[in-house]
From TrEMBL:
PANTHER family named in the record: CCA TRNA NUCLEOTIDYLTRANSFERASE 1, MITOCHONDRIAL
Record flagged with keyword Metal-binding: yes
TM annotation in the entry: none
Limits of the tRNA nucleotidyltransferase/poly(A) polymerase RNA and SrmB- binding domain: 179-233
One GO BP: tRNA processing
Keywords for the protein's UniProt record, in alphabetical order: Magnesium, Metal-binding, Nucleotide-binding, Nucleotidyltransferase, RNA-binding, Transferase, tRNA processing
Pfam families per UniProt: PolyA_pol, PolyA_pol_RNAbd
Stated family: Belongs to the tRNA nucleotidyltransferase/poly(A) polymerase family.
Protein name: CCA tRNA nucleotidyltransferase
CC cofactor: Mg(2+)
GO molecular function terms attached to this record: metal ion binding; nucleotide binding; nucleotidyltransferase activity; tRNA binding
Poly A polymerase head domain residues: 24-146
The keyword Glycoprotein appears for this protein: no
């Protein structure tokens, strides 16, 4: 029976692409998610035509094209502002564990052979006919993440597939992980050293923000991949955070798994991400779930709310390692309290007669400290009155 395209109702441009490229097929994640009824977030197609022919045929139908990855045979068609990635069928000519030299082909099975997992080697034509060369549909229904062909060969072609295996196992796997895959990953765990750290970091963060994190990290530890990609992994510490039923955020989980702010530099994360990790490592300001509203307002002045929330989960994990109504209430109060803002500026001070310069900054700082002591409650007029009184008494 043909596969229904009901879940693709939002991709009206797909029919226009099939008018231009009638032999093109849906491939990859969109086919996988269609089969199990999940929402489709993007559309990838494969075509037996060369990239140049794909561009020509699409443009003849008035479809805008962008040569997003011509070296790899990939172009992007844009219809009603929605992108559709189209890649020419390929075969590997040469691989080095990181990159592949490819050649075009018109053989669908040859293209499917170079994909990582059987569930990713499926393709679907415009009639809804599914093409399954390696048993991917059955594996998908059973929740079995299995390499196409020989697992070791697939990993040797691209060591990143070892990390992708864990991510797919978390999202699509059911029950025990495929033993052939785990054995091959363990035997070839050192190959991930050849990957760029940016590729490793990208996959690791996706794993940490996904489902089944505890069991997947344990599996990564068993296959010796975890110690290859992190200098000082601490899965037990991560377990404490997960036991608190934390939200699926990658950075706090990364810090729990490797509680050293230098891990951000090691993984070459963005500057913003590295700053967040440093904030997690800093015990100031102190978080107290039973604090007053004044104390909570001071916290919100001292540190960004998102960092305070992240740190509260890490503190809860450290102190309790289990769910806590008290900590949940603390986060709720933090979120609901309006953000305090100290409104005095240098101009306000000068209007009171203070000359510009370092002394003006000192007076503003004194006023802000008083404002903080008052729980950030005084408004601008009250702050001005306090400053005026202090300046007068000092003169």
């Amino acid at each position: 029976m043909p596969i229904s395209f009901e879940n693709l109702a939002g991709y009206a441009g797909l029919n226009k692409i099939w008018e231009a490229l009638p032999e093109a097929r849906l491939v990859g994640g969109c086919v996988r998610d269609l089969l199990i009824g999940r929402d489709v977030n993007d559309i990838d197609l494969a075509s037996p035509y060369t990239p140049e022919d794909n561009i020509k045929k699409l443009q003849e139908k008035g479809i805008k094209t962008i040569p997003t990855g011509l070296d790899h045979g990939t172009i992007t068609a844009v219809i009603d502002r929605r992108p559709y990635e189209i890649t020419t069928l390929r075969r590997d000519v040469e691989t080095d564990g990181r990159h592949a030299v490819v050649a075009w082909t018109d053989n669908w099975q040859e293209d499917a052979q170079r994909r990582d997992f059987t569930m990713n080697a499926l393709s679907l034509d415009q009639q809804g006919i599914l093409y399954d060369y390696f048993g991917g549909e059955a594996d998908l229904k059973k929740g079995r993440v299995r390499f196409v062909g020989e697992a070791t060969k697939r990993i040797e072609e691209d060591a990143l597939r070892s990390l992708r295996f864990f991510r797919f196992q978390a999202r699509y796997g059911q029950g025990e992980a495929d033993q052939d895959a785990c054995k091959a990953i363990k035997q070839n765990h050192a190959l991930v050293r050849n990957l760029s750290i940016e590729r490793v970091a990208s996959e690791l963060l996706k794993i940490l923000e996904g489902p089944e994190v505890g069991s997947i990290i344990a599996l990564m530890q068993q296959t010796e991949i975890l110690s290859e990609i992190l200098p000082h992994p601490d899965p037990e510490n991560l377990k404490r955070l997960l036991a608190c039923q934390d939200p699926p955020k990658a950075l706090p989980r990364l810090f729990a798994l490797n509680p050293d702010p230098s891990i951000g530099r090691h993984l070459k994360l963005s500057r913003m991400q590295q700053c967040a990790l440093k904030a997690y490592a800093n015990n100031e300001p102190i978080l107290l779930p039973g604090g007053s509203d004044d104390e909570l307002r001071r916290l919100k002045v001292a540190q960004e709310l998102s960092l305070l929330i992240d740190r509260s989960w890490l503190w809860q994990a450290k102190e309790l390692g289990k769910p806590s109504k008290e900590w949940s209430h603390f986060r709720q109060r933090l979120s609901l309290l309006p953000q305090p803002e100290f409104l005095l500026t240098g101009r306000d001070g000068m209007e009171l007669g203070l000359p510009p310069g370092p002394n003006l900054g000192i007076w503003l700082k004194k006023t802000q400290n008083w404002w903080l002591e008052q729980g950030c409650r005084p408004d601008k007029e009250a702050c001005l009155a306090w400053l005026k009184e202090q300046v007068s008494s000092d003169s």
